[in-house]
Design goal:
The complex is a heterodimer of chains A (315) and B (458).
Chain A (H helix, E strand, L loop, with lengths): L1 H5 L3 H10 L6 H12 L4 E4 L6 H12 L2 E6 L6 H4 L1 E3 L1 H10 L1 H9 L4 H10 L10 E3 L1 H7 L4 E6 L6 H13 L1 E4 L3 E4 L5 E6 L7 H5 L2 E4 L5 H11 L5 H15 L9 H13 L7 H11 L3 H7 L3 H14 L1
Parallel strand pairs in A: 1-8, 1-9, 2-5, 5-8
Antiparallel strand pairs in A: 3-4, 6-7
Helix pairs in contact in A: 2-3, 12-13, 12-14, 13-17, 14-15
Chain B lengths: L1 H13 L6 H14 L4 H11 L4 H14 L8 H9 L1 H24 L2 H8 L2 H14 L11 H12 L1 H14 L1 H29 L1 H13 L8 H22 L6 E6 L1 H7 L12 E3 L6 E7 L4 H13 L7 E7 L3 E3 L1 H6 L2 H12 L6 H12 L7 E6 L11 H10 L2 E6 L13 H5 L4 E4 L3 H13 L3
Parallel strand pairs in B: 3-4, 3-6, 6-7, 7-8
Antiparallel strand pairs in B: 1-2, 4-5
Helix pairs in contact in B: 2-3, 3-4, 5-6, 8-9, 9-11, 10-11, 13-15, 13-21, 18-19
Classes of the chains: A alpha/beta (315), B alpha/beta (458).
């Protein structure tokens, strides 16, 4: 079923994501469609809270695939992202098999012969059973394919980026003792970045680059509509209009889509039917996360509220 | 279609988007799967596959719009006619066959271009123009000086020679038709010119920019014209970015082989001092600390301006910069440079210390009295000036003390080596105490000088 869904048109992607409650712009839908068609990872950049991680979740839910998430942080390395040997298990097995080994090697007259016999067993203790797969290897081993989300890649070190290159371009990893593991079914890879540092050209070259900015007013209204169904149309228009005005200010952290949704929920909880001066002032801390930002925004609140409701009248 | 895509990729490179062959292959595959029917989707596709930063996305978007917005190849002349006498247009249309029949005979004998122009078939003219443009390899256009050549080539390829012959004949046999043809030819020329200008905009940008930058890099900073100052600032910022990229990498390097006994003992205290975990000695690397003394008198002022701009845009690489400006006396200018835009900062500095004849001795004396302790063993001191002290006491002894206190003392002199030591130049006397003395008159020399200074800390 998943395969059938994959080979759809751009419109199908849009409606499929919408069914999961993710309202995608045309550009996002094109990116997702292309990622399937030419089997490329998508690198999603944009400010915090515009739905980068949400996108991966929505794709996974829509296509009925498992989502494997790798959260990046400073110091993340191979052992935590790719695979690790189960040292304890290896030790335990050698202890248990001690007698057996003694038996096997017992017949050998010299040390050389024992060694030769030991070689015949091959790398018993470095076989697949002793590999602990971490997210990246897990993603390659999924039979039905999966959505691999590599979250906040910009937080990891530059060395880790190079580690990813093999996976991103060929969907395979090389484990020295075992050889190359190729993906059973190529996973859909989504990388997200907050542009905390510039990513390498090599990484960027292997990806489709998607920038998600703040959505347009109409789109944001649709997003709120899908996420907070209980909100009235008037209030929705007013609050989104208000937030768009707010984003024109010079703020430390601009309110993003996730804040819009939170605010909509708060307004519904407070049973507001219309955007009023007082209620905005009381709930401004939902939108703005810095004291300095609130101070900048407070004097403007009444003008913005008036503007937003005026837009509502004409629009 | 593939030809068109290739041309688009080249145009994109011209617009400053780095398109590698692998990316162009991706883009082609993507285009093959989305099709070319929807222009919006095509645009999104290119933005997704080719552009990898937001700046690139903007540039590529503009380039896309320009590329797929060919100038209207229709001759404007007949339209003008229509505008002027709208009521005549219908009669003209009905008149055409009747008027054409007497003129029908000469039309037979005309060349293909003349016939095409007279038939006023827009799409045919557009197609012919496009063919002629590719025959003249218009996408090879690089410099604005080539505009005339390419226009000529395109017109040649369209068969203008034949048209001219036709015109000569027609002026004798059918003057009214000749007049019509002439006005259409003018319109055609205009269209060709537009096409060429657009192509230049698409394909020539990068080369023109490179050429200009190359000239600018080697132009003496002291003598650039006011209109080039802004370009030069941009160039200096580019240089700063390049230096930052080169030197801002984390400089953490363990030196294997030397055990750090103290740290090893401490780390293994829990195991009774048995060294399970070893710690190795690290090579400690400093970030550059720079003290810059800049002469801002007369001809050196401009060079100082750009030098200060460069040094102060190296935040990521350089830990600590303190800048001082002097001519007759010396003041600290770090704060002014940090807080204001380059233009304002320079204006303020000039109003404070500029416009005096330079006195190196007095300025060094000012520095020694107030700021000598800002120099440590890790500091590089850079003096930028022509060392022309108007025959006043050069106070080379202070420079000697500065050299003794600092890690390095670098003197950058905008004058050529030939002039050092002649007239009131004290350069040879100062040079004995300097670690390095270099000429520094152009942006390129400036880049090398600063690059060397930063590199000594690596």
């Amino acid at each position: 079923m998943a395969e059938q869904r994959a080979a759809a048109s751009i419109e199908a992607v849009e409606s499929g994501l919408a069914a999961q409650g993710y309202i995608a712009s045309r550009q996002i839908a094109t990116a997702v469609y292309l990622a399937q068609q030419i089997e490329k990872p998508i690198l999603v950049e944009g400010p915090a809270g515009v739905g980068k991680t949400e996108l991966a979740k929505a794709i996974a839910a829509w296509r009925g695939l498992k989502m494997i998430r790798l959260q990046c942080y400073e110091g993340l390395d191979e052992a935590k992202a790719l695979y690790e040997w189960k040292y304890a298990k290896q030790l335990l097995y050698t202890q248990i098999l001690k007698d057996k080994l003694g038996e096997v090697l017992g017949g050998a007259p010299t040390l050389e012969a024992a060694l030769a016999q030991l070689h015949d067993f091959g790398d018993v203790f470095f076989s697949k059973e002793f590999v602990e797969p971490r997210p990246l290897l897990q993603a390659l081993e999924q039979k039905a394919g999966c959505v691999l989300l590599i979250d906040e890649i910009d937080k990891s070190d530059a060395e880790f980026e190079s580690l990813l290159l093999e996976i991103l371009s060929d969907f395979q990893v090389t484990i020295p003792e075992l050889g190359t593991v190729v993906a059973v079914a190529p996973p859909t890879v989504i990388l997200t970045s907050n542009s905390e540092r510039d990513l390498g050209d090599a990484l960027k070259r292997r990806c489709l680059h998607l920038h998600i900015g703040f959505p347009e007013q109409k789109l944001e209204e649709r997003i709120v509509e899908s996420r907070v169904p209980g909100i009235s149309q008037t209030l929705r228009k007013q609050m989104v209009g208000f937030i768009h005005e707010l984003r024109t200010l010079d703020l430390k952290k601009q309110p993003s889509v996730s804040e819009t949704i939170d605010w909509a929920r708060v307004l519904v909880l407070l049973q507001a039917s219309e955007l009023g001066h007082e209620i905005v002032k009381d709930t401004l801390n939902v939108l703005l996360k810095y004291e300095a930002d609130i101070e900048v925004a407070l004097p403007q609140v009444s003008t913005f509220v008036a503007k937003a409701s005026r837009h509502n009248v004409f629009g | 279609m593939r030809e068109n895509l290739h041309r688009f990729f080249r145009a994109a490179r011209g617009a400053g988007v780095r398109v590698s062959p692998a990316e162009s292959i991706d883009a082609m595959r993507a285009v093959a799967s989305v099709g070319i029917s929807d222009r919006g989707i095509l645009r999104d596709t290119f933005l997704l596959t080719l552009a990898k930063t937001q700046d690139e996305k903007r540039a590529l978007g503009e380039c896309f719009d320009l590329f797929f917005d060919q100038p209207e190849p229709a001759a404007p002349a007949p339209e003008n006619d229509n505008d002027e006498k709208p009521e005549a247009s219908e009669s003209e249309a009905s008149q055409q066959p009747s008027a054409g029949s007497p003129a029908g005979q000469p039309t037979e004998g005309l060349g293909p271009l003349a016939q095409m122009l007279l038939s006023q078939d827009r799409s045919e003219i557009a197609a012919a123009l496009a063919n002629a443009a590719s025959a003249a390899s218009l996408s090879d256009i690089r410099y604005f000086t080539q505009r005339g050549i390419f226009s000529g080539r395109i017109l040649d390829a369209m068969g203008i020679q034949r048209l001219r012959d036709d015109l000569d004949e027609l002026t004798v046999s059918n003057p009214s038709l000749a007049e019509r043809l002439t006005s259409m030819l003018d319109a055609l020329r205009e269209t060709v010119r537009d096409t060429v200008s657009q192509a230049l905009l698409l394909y020539g940008r990068e080369e023109t920019e490179n050429l200009r930058n190359e000239i600018l890099r080697n132009a003496p900073l002291a003598r650039i014209e006011p209109r080039q100052v802004e370009q030069m600032r941009r160039l200096i910022r580019q240089i700063a970015r390049r230096l930052r990229e080169r030197y801002s990498k984390p400089r953490k390097r363990q030196r294997r082989g030397h055990l750090d006994v103290r740290r090893t003992m401490r780390r293994n205290a829990a195991w009774g001092g048995i060294p399970f975990l070893t710690a190795w000695k690290r090579k400690h690397r400093d970030r550059p600390k720079i003290v810059a003394l800049c002469d801002v008198s007369g001809s050196v002022a401009k060079v100082s301006d750009f030098f200060l701009l460069l040094i102060h845009s190296l935040h990521e690489v350089v830990d600590d910069v303190r800048s001082f400006a002097f001519s007759g006396h010396l003041i600290e200018v770090s704060d002014i440079l940090e807080s204001k835009s380059p233009e304002e900062a320079m204006a303020e500095i000039m109003s404070k210390v500029g416009f005096g004849s330079s006195d190196y001795g007095n300025s060094f004396d000012d520095f020694e009295r107030e700021w000598m302790n800002s120099i440590t063993q890790k500091t590089t001191v850079i003096v930028l000036g022509d060392a022309r002290s108007n025959n006043l006491d050069p106070r080379a002894d202070i420079l000697r003390r500065i050299a003794e206190r600092s890690k390095r003392l670098v003197w950058l002199n905008p004058e050529g080596r030939m002039a050092w030591g002649f007239g009131d130049s004290e350069m040879p006397r100062y040079a004995t105490f300097c670690t390095v003395v270099r000429q520094c008159a152009t942006a390129q020399q400036l880049e090398r000088a600063v690059s060397d200074i930063v590199a000594t800390y690596q």
